[in-house]
Write a structure and sequence with these properties.
The chain is α+β, with helices and mostly antiparallel strands. It has two helices and three strands; from the N terminus they run αβββα.
Amino acid sequence: MTKKIIDKLDEIGGEKAIIINIFDENKSDKIIEFPRIIEIPSLLEEDGFHANQEAINKIRMCLEEYKDD
């Protein structure tokens, strides 16, 4: 899957992709970072009602990085 995402980024001239899952079905809850891909396993906590603050912060940091582009 990573190769497919990198190929798509190259095709469209993209710099970075953020893959965000709403619920973590695999219970990994670890944000995975590659040079051009950030994978967020769960936007919501296990209860399904509360936001995963670590995920929100990571998205915010990534968007700030590209804000002026």
